[in-house]
Amino acid sequence: MSLLTYAFMRWALGAGVVSALACGLIGPFVRVRRLAFLAGAVAHSALGGLGVAYYYGFAPEAGALPAAVVSAFLIGWLDKRGRSSGHGHEDALIGAIWAVGMAVGILFISRTPGYNVQLMSYLFGSILTAGPDRLMFMTGGLIVVALPLIIFWRPLVAASLDPEFARLRGLPVDGLNYLLLTLIAIAVVLLIQVVGLILVLALLTLPSASAAHWARGMVAMVGLASLIALASIFVGLEAAVSLDWPAGPVIVLAAASLFSLSSILRHIVPAKLVKTGKTDSAKSRHQA
């Protein structure tokens, strides 16, 4: 069966395209800044807001989005405090935010009577349930993520590649960090529509990690990561339709397989190409 045969498959494919673009835009910054742990904490903190919203009868994303943004600001402040003090206690506090967010979400979900299929789709992913309303929400979220990245692209790249040099140039590095974490929070809420809250971190990191093997600069990494994410989502949709497998886990496994293949091929290419890629990457840092 073609992915475009039925309307629900077209909605699902549209949601997949939006998700792939979100991965491509945010994933490279997560990789370059080594924010996977912080992004994971933001993602799992969203479960607290999701559970509270569900308990009081609101749409899950109405709780997940504010919870993710608030936790992003709190985590950003803790990370800044940790880098300035050098004590290292902030990692434990960030881990506590991760755990508390999940605990609050599980508690409120368990206190809500009945079984809600929509809620389970947010936890474990269900791209096939995407409809026009969800696609509109995701498209709006993608625009909110993309516009600040386009407007502040050069400062964000500079602050990500070399924060100290960016400070010397007078860039508001702390403010840019908060902006980036906020955009990560929004992207997380978009991606849980596809792979669920449990697997969202993998989709946010694996495509950009694969792209980093070949891309020479942040712009190229964004484009390549988007294509890799889209290929992974396409495989997940095909598996869901043809084999009746859950799409979310297959999407993540496809992304992991592409990362493994990319890692193997990266060690096979001639050393001259590797050296050229590193040189161009270094030049792009100075240009940023």
TrEMBL record:
Cellular component, GO annotation: ATP-binding cassette (ABC) transporter complex
InterPro entries: ABC_BtuC-like, ABC_TroCD
Keyword flag Ribonucleoprotein: no
Protein family according to the UniProt entry: Belongs to the ABC-3 integral membrane protein family.
One Gene Ontology biological process: transmembrane transport
The protein's name in its UniProt record: Metal ABC transporter permease
Subcellular location: Cell membrane; Membrane
PANTHER family in UniProt: ABC-TRANSPORTER METAL-BINDING PROTEIN (PTHR30477), METAL TRANSPORT SYSTEM MEMBRANE PROTEIN CT_417-RELATED (PTHR30477:SF18)
One Pfam short name: ABC-3
Keywords recorded for this protein, A-Z: Membrane, Transmembrane, Transmembrane helix, Transport
TM segment ranges: 6-28, 35-56, 91-109, 138-156, 176-206, 218-241, 247-269
Topology relative to the membrane: Multi-pass membrane protein
